[in-house]
């Protein structure tokens, strides 16, 4: 099945699927699921590609998102970003790492488990989910709600370079707005400039990030990622200024801590803060409302899912896994984690190549990832 798997990965990279534009990719995934013998295949209300194998009581869910970030520098790539070329053992192209190779591996891993007779007493779901790049977890929340499925185990197939990954940082995205009084630009003393009101808050943001930093230790971060103002004209004092903050939480931090930090940032200023809610419309026309507030999460090394994945790793590579990872970035995991579902990460590709020019994944590791997924199904 290896040759067919790699061809599927190439076709996936060749199928452009920016966030909210995943329709062609969803159709590709469901057709491949049919081809390799899934028992049920469909595209759900919000546009996720869904496949099922088996009908046993133990439910195992593999999730990989279909969307990618955009390419705005195609002429600067060493290889065309949507050609899906394999050169010296590497699959090049947008999505090869984040995360089409892993999604394709999950499709074929489930099919391989069925072929080997490892699905008795189990139901395996594989989802190609939508809009993860903007709305972590929302597509899976809709999938679980609409299908009524509550998995016993969930595997997030984000890139981990085939290293068992036990969790990731939390996230809080926040808008802070300051308020002023309009006046003509020729008489600014008659107004109050909302941008000036924001200036000290911005300095506080920088100081907060510096205070969070811990050299050679896991730590949280905060970054100002956007700023804008509102004014009657370019000849007027701004009446509002808004900044957008991206706060990442280390495992020891909580959302309650972040809320206290935000209160501190605006203290003494004519300002308020609120969750940076985002709205997106999926390729099927469904509206996503994303509340970007997630605590960090981590599965225990001794958890049954972790031990089953360790066994699958040894079955595949012939050696014990000697290290674990912990992602810095967000994934769809908060959906199953919030439901109390044991969740773990494993996938193809070096995640530091995600979102980058010249994104590429090692073909040999795609094959191994597929085998790990199949062996995990066997061991659960």
How many beta-strand elements? 19
Portion in helices: 25-40%
- Please tell me how large the radius of gyration is: 23 Å
In what order do the strands lie side by side in the largest sheet?
1-2-6-3-7-18
* Share of residues in strands: 15-25%
Which overall shape is indicated by the principal axes computed on the Cα atoms?
A: elongated
Q: Please outline the major beta sheet.
A: 6 strands, mixed
**Multimeric status of the protein:** single chain
Separate helix tally = 9
Structural class: alpha+beta
Given as residue ranges, the uncertain stretches (5+ residues, pLDDT < 50) are none
Mean pLDDT: 97
SSE sequence, one letter per element: HHEEEEEHEHEEEHEEHEEEEEHEHEEH
In angstroms, what separates the terminal alpha carbons? 22 Å
Brief overview:
The chain has 380 residues and is of the alpha+beta class. It has helices at residues 2-14, 23-35, 96-115, 138-147, 194-212, 255-266, 304-317, 334-338, 363-379; strands at 40-43, 49-53, 58-65, 86-87, 90-92, 122-129, 153-156, 165-168, 170-179, 221-230, 240-249, 271-275, 278-281, 287-290, 293-294, 297-298, 325-327, 343-345, 360-362. The strands form five sheets. A six-stranded mixed beta sheet has the order 1-2-6-3-7-18, with helices on one face. Strands 9, 10, 11, 12 and 15 form a five-stranded antiparallel beta sheet that branches. It has a three-stranded antiparallel beta sheet with strand order 4-5-19.
